[in-house]
Design a protein that fits this description.
It is a single chain. By secondary structure, the protein is an alpha/beta fold. It has two domains: about 60 residues, no CATH class; about 190 residues, Rossmann fold (3-Layer(aba) Sandwich), CATH 3.40.50. Helix content is about 30%, strand content about 20%. It contains seven helices and ten strands. The strands form two sheets. The chain has an eight-stranded mixed sheet. Strands 6-7 form a two-stranded antiparallel ribbon. The N and C termini lie far apart (about 60 Å).
Length: about 270
């Protein structure tokens, strides 16, 4: 019954930025919180170091109903996939465009300095993290200059205004062309985007057919393709797109390479 109700209210909850499942947990957790609060006060010694102060109350209602975490899903598998690939390739320099700082970038910083480009600002004192504010549709790098580039779960947002960028219907295409332009011959591009029924979910993201991405990067070679399915499970190195199941919101993981004789051919 609850699952049916959540499905019915999903469009409205998205529009109002409400998480109905979290609301259910609040209602379930509220009486438990107060029960435990009373019990804790009773077992607190007189003049105990950690006695309860009213102004310090910090109710958390939902954690007891959730798992310890998820070793699955888009970001978990995507970040591990790209970090492992880059570790094995061992580029001298790596540039990332718009990927998650507290996930993928933190993985890379264990073994590699990273230059990060994002349309938003970033202040970080972390060694090895070089930040440049910029737009993927007009990157400030020379043609054929970058040996290793990543762009994970970022391209689908370009031009939708979600992150303060300008509205641009063709933003994703312009971004891909810039990644292709700046990648040097022999260089590798690691790209992660939502895949499935092709559509725009304004203003959150776009979902791509995998062939759309390959067609837009027609001058690059697709070295490998892996994906995360609708259930968060990872499938490594799929031979072709025809073997994919019907997906609603998966994650495609593309490893492209620019041919070493690219300059002579283009």
């Amino acid at each position: 019954m609850l699952s049916v109700l959540l499905k019915f209210t999903k469009p409205i909850s998205r529009l109002l930025a409400i998480n109905p499942r979290r609301l259910v947990h609040i209602f379930k957790g509220w009486p438990i919180f107060f029960r435990d609060l009373v019990r804790y006060i009773k077992i607190t010694p007189d003049n105990g170091r950690f006695y309860v102060r009213y102004l310090d109350l910090y109710p958390v209602y939902h954690d007891r109903f959730e798992s310890a975490g998820e070793a699955r899903g888009h970001y978990f598998h995507q970040d591990l996939w790209a970090a492992k690939e880059i570790y094995c390739e061992k580029p001298e320099c790596h540039v990332d465009i718009g990927s998650r700082i507290d996930g993928f970038i933190s993985h890379l910083l264990v073994f590699r300095n990273v230059t990060v480009v994002d349309v938003r600002s970033l202040e970080s004192p972390v060694d090895g993290l070089i930040f440049k504010r910029g737009d993927i549709t007009c990157l400030e790098f020379d043609d054929n200059s970058l040996e290793s580039i990543s762009c994970l779960h970022a391209l689908e947002h370009i031009g939708l205004g979600r992150y303060g960028d300008e509205l641009n219907y063709n933003g994703w295409q312009e971004g891909l062309k810039e990644l292709e332009r700046t990648l040097k011959p022999g260089g590798i591009l690691y790209l992660g985007v939502p895949i499935g029924r092709e559509r725009v979910c304004f203003n959150a993201h776009r979902v791509f057919d995998p062939s759309t991405i390959c067609d837009a990067l027609g001058k690059l070679i697709l070295e490998s393709f892996s994906y995360v399915d609708d259930f968060g499970n990872y499938h490594e190195r799929v031979p072709d797109f025809e073997s994919l199941p019907v997906l609603e919101y998966g994650c495609g993981l593309f490893k492209f390479k620019k041919e070493c004789n690219y300059s002579a051919k283009n």
